[in-house]
C-alpha cells in the first residue's frame, strides 16, 4: 500500500511537471496556440453573429436536411474551399488555481490506476513496466490526438507524440522501481 501511494504521488508529479514543461516552459505545443494579428477582428466578427459557445466543424453543410442533402451541399458549396474547426467560448475565464487542482487530481488518479495495473502483473520488471506504461501513453495518443490529426489535420502532432513517450517512459521507470516484487 505504501508503494501504491508513493507511486501515485510521484507519478502525478511526473505527469503534472511534464505537462507544464510541454505546454508552457518548453512550449512544444506552440503550433496549436499560434497568434494572428487578426484575432480581435475574427473574435469580434464571431461575437457579432450571436454564435453560441461550442465547438464547430466549419465547412460540412447543414445536417437538418439529412445526410444526402448535407453531402450534396458539401460537394457544391464546400469541397475544395476553406474549412476549419472552431472552439468558440463567449467569455474568457481563466481559473488557474482550479485548473491546476483538477489537472493534478487527474494525474493522481491516472498514476494510481497505472500502479494498480502494474501490480496485477505477476512478475513485473523494469522492462515490463516501461513497455506497459509506454503502451498506455501510445494508445492514448493514437486514439485521441492522432485520430484528430488524421481527420482534422490538427497541429502539434509531434508534441503530442512526445507527451505520449516521455512522461509515460518515466512512469514505467518509476513503476519498475516500486512495483517489482
Layout of helices and strands:
Elements: H1 2-25, H2 39-49, E1 54-58, H3 67-78, E2 84-88, H4 96-119, H5 126-152, H6 157-179
Antiparallel strand pairs: 1-2
Helix pairs in contact: 1-4, 1-6, 5-6
Short synopsis of the structure:
The chain has helices spanning 2-25, 39-49, 67-78, 96-119, 126-152, 157-179, and strands spanning 54-58, 84-88.
Describe this protein's structure.
The chain is mainly α and 181 residues long. 67% of the residues lie in helices and 6% in strands. It has six helices and two strands. The protein has helices spanning 2-25, 39-49, 67-78, 96-119, 126-152, 157-179; strands at residues 54-58, 84-88. Strands 1-2 form a two-stranded antiparallel sheet. α1 (2-25) crosses α4 (96-119), α1 packs antiparallel against α6 (157-179) and α5 runs antiparallel to α6 (157-179). It is elongated and about 65 Å long. The two termini are 13 Å apart.
The average pLDDT score comes to 92
What's the SSE pattern? HHEHEHHH
What's the overall geometry?
Answer: elongated
Low-confidence stretches: none
Please tally the β strands and state the result: 2
Assembly form of the protein: single chain
Overall helicity: 55-70%
Sheet with most strands: 2 strands, antiparallel
In terms of structural class, how would the helical and strand content be classed? Answer: mainly alpha
* Radius of gyration computed on alpha carbons: 21 Å
Main sheet strand line-up: 1-2
DSSP helical segment count: 6
**Spatial gap, N to C terminus:** 13 Å
How big a fraction of the residues is strand? 5-15%
Amino acid at each position: 500500500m505504501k508503494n501504491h501511494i508513493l507511486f501515485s504521488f510521484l507519478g502525478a508529479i511526473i505527469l503534472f511537471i511534464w505537462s507544464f514543461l510541454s505546454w508552457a516552459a518548453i512550449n512544444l505545443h506552440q503550433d496549436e496556440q499560434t497568434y494572428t494579428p487578426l484575432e480581435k477582428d475574427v473574435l469580434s466578427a464571431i461575437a457579432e453573429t450571436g454564435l453560441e459557445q461550442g465547438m464547430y466543424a466549419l465547412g460540412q453543410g447543414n445536417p437538418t436536411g439529412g445526410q444526402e442533402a448535407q453531402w450534396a451541399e458539401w460537394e457544391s458549396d464546400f469541397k475544395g474551399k476553406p474549412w476549419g474547426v472552431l472552439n468558440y467560448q463567449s467569455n474568457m475565464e481563466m481559473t488557474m488555481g482550479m485548473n491546476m487542482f483538477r489537472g493534478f487530481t487527474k494525474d493522481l488518479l491516472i498514476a494510481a490506476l497505472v500502479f494498480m495495473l502494474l501490480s496485477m502483473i505477476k512478475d513485473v520488471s523494469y522492462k515490463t513496466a516501461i513497455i506497459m506504461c509506454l503502451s498506455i501513453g501510445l494508445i492514448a495518443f493514437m486514439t485521441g490526438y492522432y485520430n484528430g490529426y488524421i481527420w482534422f489535420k490538427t497541429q502539434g502532432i509531434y508534441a503530442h507524440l512526445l507527451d505520449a513517450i516521455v512522461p509515460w517512459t518515466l512512469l514505467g521507470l518509476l513503476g519498475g522501481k516500486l512495483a517489482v516484487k
